[in-house]
Amino acid sequence: MWAFSGFDIASGKTTAMVIPTLPAKATAGSFFAGFSASLSGGFTPATTSTDNVTLLVNLDNAKKAKAADIQNAYDSSLRIENPGFHSPNTIDCATCHISETARIVVGEDQLNLTASSDNDAFTADPKFVSKTNMRATTTPRRQSTNVHMLSYRGGSLMIGQRVINETANVVAYVNGVVLKAN
Q1: Which of 14, 22, 101, 154 lies deepest, with the highest CB count within 10 Å?
Q2: Across all residues in the chain, what is the average pLDDT?
């Protein structure tokens, strides 16, 4: 289980951060991965976002769901990873942190979904960032559930796809706008 919370600082004082898309102005949320080999988890509390990956974090539930609902959850995961759609101000922590793992481990590996022609998938500006540079450092396929976005696990660097996508946006902006203006 992973617990998520945050705080805001104003005038030197901290206050609990209200997490976007959680009900009742919640200041904490959690994700439980379950006990089976594949994901069998859920969120507490449940997100109120229309971009919802709940079906993809529980393989048993996903296998019982309608194809359209599964595709919607998969598309949601791509939008959550895409900084053109979401930011920390528009999606809750747990959903964002588990989205990549759910997309890959359940959506792609178990349900054979693909982002290859999906308009919601992030595409880096090829003028500034190559496809080679967009590759993740690790993949959820080779590890147990890891919700870190940027950290080391043992000696292995973990950089989540969301961080890679945001970095590509910054690189394109700096090279295309800031440096070009000078």
Answers
A1: 101
A2: 90
pTM score above 0.85: yes
Cα Rg of the chain, angstroms: 17
pLDDT at 130 over 90: no
Q: How many angstroms separate the CA atoms of 53 and 57, rounded?
A: 7
Which DSSP symbol is given to 140? G
Q: Which of the 8 DSSP states describes residue 23? A: G
Of the ranges 45-54, 115-124, 149-158, which is most confident?
A: 45-54
107, 80 contact by CB (below 8 A): no
- Residue 5, phi-psi category: left (phi > 0), alpha (psi -120 to 50), beta (remainder): beta
Which residue has 């979401």 as its token pair? 86
H or E segment to which residue 173 belongs: helix 161-173
Domain that holds residue 86: 2-181
